[in-house]
Amino acid sequence: LPQARAGIISTVEVLKVMEAFVNEPNYTVWSDLSCNLGILGTLLSHTDFYEDIQVFVRDVFSPIGERLGWDPKPGEGHLDALLRGLVLGKLGKAGHRATLEEARRRFKEHVEGKHILSADLRSPVYVTVLKHGDSSTLDTMLKLHKQADMQEEKNRIERVLGAISQPELIQKVLTFALSEEVRPQDTVSVIGGVAGGSKQGRKAAWKFVRDNWEELYNRYQGGFLISRLIKV
Protein backbone atom coordinates (compact mmCIF):
# COMPACT_ATOMS: atom_id res chain seq x y z
CA LEU A 1 0.00 0.00 0.00
CA PRO A 2 2.81 2.54 0.62
CA GLN A 3 3.74 2.13 -3.05
CA ALA A 4 0.12 2.67 -4.05
CA ARG A 5 -0.09 5.81 -1.89
CA ALA A 6 3.03 7.06 -3.61
CA GLY A 7 1.41 6.46 -7.00
CA ILE A 8 3.94 3.81 -8.04
CA ILE A 9 1.37 1.03 -8.42
CA SER A 10 -2.42 0.98 -8.77
CA THR A 11 -4.55 0.75 -5.62
CA VAL A 12 -6.75 -1.70 -7.53
CA GLU A 13 -3.76 -4.05 -7.87
CA VAL A 14 -3.16 -3.82 -4.13
CA LEU A 15 -6.79 -4.72 -3.41
CA LYS A 16 -6.52 -7.73 -5.72
CA VAL A 17 -3.48 -8.91 -3.74
CA MET A 18 -5.42 -8.43 -0.49
CA GLU A 19 -8.25 -10.62 -1.81
CA ALA A 20 -5.75 -13.47 -2.20
CA PHE A 21 -5.27 -13.63 1.59
CA VAL A 22 -8.84 -14.73 2.46
CA ASN A 23 -7.63 -18.16 3.65
CA GLU A 24 -4.60 -16.80 5.53
CA PRO A 25 -4.59 -17.90 9.24
CA ASN A 26 -1.72 -15.65 10.41
CA TYR A 27 -2.51 -12.80 12.82
CA THR A 28 0.39 -10.61 11.70
CA VAL A 29 -0.76 -10.74 8.07
CA TRP A 30 -4.33 -9.79 8.99
CA SER A 31 -3.10 -7.02 11.27
CA ASP A 32 -1.11 -5.55 8.37
CA LEU A 33 -4.08 -5.88 6.00
CA SER A 34 -6.35 -4.24 8.56
CA CYS A 35 -3.95 -1.34 9.09
CA ASN A 36 -3.54 -0.70 5.36
CA LEU A 37 -7.27 -0.93 4.70
CA GLY A 38 -7.80 1.54 7.53
CA ILE A 39 -5.43 3.99 5.88
CA LEU A 40 -7.18 3.47 2.55
CA GLY A 41 -10.56 4.01 4.21
CA THR A 42 -9.30 7.29 5.66
CA LEU A 43 -8.03 8.43 2.26
CA LEU A 44 -11.33 7.48 0.60
CA SER A 45 -13.54 8.99 3.32
CA HIS A 46 -13.71 12.25 1.34
CA THR A 47 -14.78 10.47 -1.87
CA ASP A 48 -17.73 8.54 -3.27
CA PHE A 49 -15.76 5.29 -2.84
CA TYR A 50 -15.96 5.11 0.97
CA GLU A 51 -18.98 2.79 1.00
CA ASP A 52 -17.34 0.60 -1.65
CA ILE A 53 -14.31 0.05 0.57
CA GLN A 54 -16.62 -0.95 3.45
CA VAL A 55 -18.19 -3.58 1.17
CA PHE A 56 -14.68 -4.76 0.28
CA VAL A 57 -13.74 -5.05 3.98
CA ARG A 58 -16.87 -7.11 4.67
CA ASP A 59 -16.11 -9.40 1.72
CA VAL A 60 -12.45 -9.94 2.65
CA PHE A 61 -12.90 -10.37 6.42
CA SER A 62 -16.16 -12.36 6.56
CA PRO A 63 -14.68 -15.80 5.62
CA ILE A 64 -12.05 -15.64 8.39
CA GLY A 65 -14.70 -14.22 10.74
CA GLU A 66 -16.99 -17.19 10.10
CA ARG A 67 -14.11 -19.62 10.64
CA LEU A 68 -13.04 -18.06 13.94
CA GLY A 69 -16.54 -17.49 15.32
CA TRP A 70 -17.14 -15.62 18.56
CA ASP A 71 -15.98 -18.15 21.12
CA PRO A 72 -12.54 -19.68 21.78
CA LYS A 73 -11.91 -23.19 20.50
CA PRO A 74 -9.95 -25.89 22.36
CA GLY A 75 -6.20 -25.58 21.85
CA GLU A 76 -6.29 -21.97 20.69
CA GLY A 77 -3.33 -19.73 21.40
CA HIS A 78 -3.02 -16.05 22.31
CA LEU A 79 -2.68 -15.00 18.65
CA ASP A 80 -5.98 -16.68 17.79
CA ALA A 81 -7.74 -14.56 20.42
CA LEU A 82 -6.04 -11.44 19.06
CA LEU A 83 -7.04 -12.38 15.51
CA ARG A 84 -10.67 -12.92 16.56
CA GLY A 85 -10.82 -9.48 18.17
CA LEU A 86 -9.19 -7.84 15.15
CA VAL A 87 -11.49 -9.52 12.61
CA LEU A 88 -14.75 -9.04 14.53
CA GLY A 89 -13.90 -5.39 15.18
CA LYS A 90 -13.16 -4.81 11.49
CA LEU A 91 -16.38 -6.53 10.38
CA GLY A 92 -18.45 -4.73 13.02
CA LYS A 93 -17.17 -1.28 12.11
CA ALA A 94 -17.76 -2.02 8.43
CA GLY A 95 -21.41 -2.83 9.17
CA HIS A 96 -21.38 -6.60 8.62
CA ARG A 97 -24.98 -7.40 9.62
CA ALA A 98 -24.47 -10.71 11.46
CA THR A 99 -21.49 -9.31 13.39
CA LEU A 100 -23.43 -6.18 14.34
CA GLU A 101 -26.43 -8.17 15.56
CA GLU A 102 -24.29 -10.55 17.64
CA ALA A 103 -22.24 -7.66 19.07
CA ARG A 104 -25.43 -5.88 20.16
CA ARG A 105 -26.76 -9.08 21.75
CA ARG A 106 -23.55 -9.73 23.67
CA PHE A 107 -23.23 -6.07 24.68
CA LYS A 108 -26.75 -6.10 26.15
CA GLU A 109 -25.98 -9.24 28.17
CA HIS A 110 -22.68 -7.70 29.32
CA VAL A 111 -24.36 -4.48 30.50
CA GLU A 112 -27.12 -6.44 32.26
CA GLY A 113 -24.52 -8.63 33.99
CA LYS A 114 -25.92 -11.82 32.46
CA HIS A 115 -22.76 -12.77 30.57
CA ILE A 116 -19.64 -10.63 31.01
CA LEU A 117 -17.58 -10.19 27.84
CA SER A 118 -14.08 -11.64 27.85
CA ALA A 119 -11.32 -9.02 27.73
CA ASP A 120 -10.34 -9.83 24.12
CA LEU A 121 -13.93 -9.30 22.86
CA ARG A 122 -14.68 -6.05 24.66
CA SER A 123 -12.96 -3.63 22.26
CA PRO A 124 -14.48 -5.12 19.08
CA VAL A 125 -17.95 -5.26 20.66
CA TYR A 126 -17.69 -1.72 22.06
CA VAL A 127 -16.46 -0.35 18.71
CA THR A 128 -19.24 -2.09 16.80
CA VAL A 129 -22.14 -0.96 18.98
CA LEU A 130 -20.79 2.60 19.18
CA LYS A 131 -20.18 2.93 15.43
CA HIS A 132 -23.80 1.98 14.76
CA GLY A 133 -25.21 3.33 18.02
CA ASP A 134 -27.06 6.37 19.35
CA SER A 135 -27.04 8.63 22.40
CA SER A 136 -28.30 5.78 24.57
CA THR A 137 -25.35 3.60 23.48
CA LEU A 138 -22.89 6.37 24.32
CA ASP A 139 -24.53 7.02 27.71
CA THR A 140 -24.29 3.30 28.52
CA MET A 141 -20.61 3.27 27.56
CA LEU A 142 -19.87 6.33 29.70
CA LYS A 143 -21.67 4.61 32.58
CA LEU A 144 -19.49 1.52 32.11
CA HIS A 145 -16.45 3.82 32.20
CA LYS A 146 -17.56 5.41 35.46
CA GLN A 147 -18.29 2.03 37.06
CA ALA A 148 -15.05 0.34 35.91
CA ASP A 149 -12.79 -0.68 38.79
CA MET A 150 -9.74 -1.31 36.61
CA GLN A 151 -7.88 1.49 34.84
CA GLU A 152 -7.28 -0.97 31.99
CA GLU A 153 -11.04 -1.11 31.33
CA LYS A 154 -11.37 2.67 31.55
CA ASN A 155 -8.57 3.03 28.98
CA ARG A 156 -10.17 0.40 26.74
CA ILE A 157 -13.42 2.39 26.71
CA GLU A 158 -11.63 5.72 26.21
CA ARG A 159 -9.87 4.41 23.10
CA VAL A 160 -13.12 3.35 21.37
CA LEU A 161 -15.47 6.25 22.19
CA GLY A 162 -14.44 8.01 18.96
CA ALA A 163 -16.26 5.33 16.95
CA ILE A 164 -19.58 7.13 17.59
CA SER A 165 -20.88 8.68 14.36
CA GLN A 166 -23.34 11.50 15.07
CA PRO A 167 -21.84 15.04 15.19
CA GLU A 168 -23.51 16.02 18.49
CA LEU A 169 -22.30 12.80 20.14
CA ILE A 170 -18.78 13.35 18.80
CA GLN A 171 -18.83 16.71 20.59
CA LYS A 172 -19.98 15.00 23.78
CA VAL A 173 -17.01 12.62 23.59
CA LEU A 174 -14.58 15.50 23.03
CA THR A 175 -16.00 17.38 26.03
CA PHE A 176 -15.65 14.17 28.06
CA ALA A 177 -11.97 13.98 27.03
CA LEU A 178 -11.18 17.14 29.03
CA SER A 179 -13.42 16.26 31.98
CA GLU A 180 -12.28 15.08 35.39
CA GLU A 181 -13.51 11.58 34.45
CA VAL A 182 -10.44 11.14 32.24
CA ARG A 183 -6.88 11.22 33.57
CA PRO A 184 -4.87 14.04 31.93
CA GLN A 185 -2.45 11.52 30.39
CA ASP A 186 -5.39 9.69 28.78
CA THR A 187 -7.12 12.72 27.24
CA VAL A 188 -5.00 12.36 24.09
CA SER A 189 -6.27 8.79 23.58
CA VAL A 190 -9.88 9.98 23.57
CA ILE A 191 -9.22 12.88 21.16
CA GLY A 192 -7.09 10.59 18.98
CA GLY A 193 -9.88 8.02 18.89
CA VAL A 194 -12.29 10.68 17.66
CA ALA A 195 -9.81 11.86 15.02
CA GLY A 196 -9.38 8.31 13.74
CA GLY A 197 -13.05 7.36 13.97
CA SER A 198 -14.55 9.12 10.96
CA LYS A 199 -14.27 12.05 8.57
CA GLN A 200 -16.62 14.04 10.81
CA GLY A 201 -14.61 13.05 13.87
CA ARG A 202 -11.35 14.16 12.27
CA LYS A 203 -12.73 17.62 11.51
CA ALA A 204 -14.35 17.95 14.93
CA ALA A 205 -11.19 16.81 16.77
CA TRP A 206 -9.01 19.30 14.87
CA LYS A 207 -11.40 22.16 15.68
CA PHE A 208 -11.56 21.02 19.31
CA VAL A 209 -7.77 21.00 19.60
CA ARG A 210 -7.56 24.50 18.08
CA ASP A 211 -10.34 25.84 20.34
CA ASN A 212 -8.72 24.33 23.46
CA TRP A 213 -5.10 24.74 22.44
CA GLU A 214 -4.06 26.90 25.41
CA GLU A 215 -5.43 24.44 27.97
CA LEU A 216 -3.97 21.44 26.16
CA TYR A 217 -0.56 23.06 25.70
CA ASN A 218 -0.40 24.19 29.32
CA ARG A 219 -1.46 20.72 30.45
CA TYR A 220 1.33 18.91 28.56
CA GLN A 221 4.00 21.62 28.51
CA GLY A 222 5.40 20.70 25.13
CA GLY A 223 6.05 17.06 26.15
CA PHE A 224 5.60 13.88 24.12
CA LEU A 225 1.81 13.86 24.63
CA ILE A 226 1.38 17.16 22.80
CA SER A 227 3.51 15.74 19.97
CA ARG A 228 1.31 12.64 19.87
CA LEU A 229 -1.81 14.80 19.82
CA ILE A 230 -0.54 16.77 16.82
CA LYS A 231 0.42 13.55 15.04
CA VAL A 232 -3.06 12.01 15.42
UniProtKB/TrEMBL annotation:
Annotated keywords = Aminopeptidase, Hydrolase, Protease
Q: Which GO terms describe its cellular component?
A: cytoplasm; extracellular space; membrane
Q: Among the record's GO biological process terms, what is one?
A: proteolysis
Q: Does the keyword Zinc apply?
A: no
Q: Where is the ERAP1-like C-terminal domain?
A: 4-231
Q: Does the keyword Transmembrane helix apply?
A: no
Under the heading InterPro entries, the entry gives: ERAP1-like_C_dom, Peptidase_M1_aminopeptidases
Supply one GO molecular-function term. peptide binding
Which organism does this sequence originate in? Cardinalis cardinalis
Coiled-coil ranges per the record? none
Protein name, entry field = PSA aminopeptidase
- Cross-referenced Gene3D superfamilies, in alphabetical order? 1.25.50.20
Q: Into which family does the record put it?
A: Belongs to the peptidase M1 family.
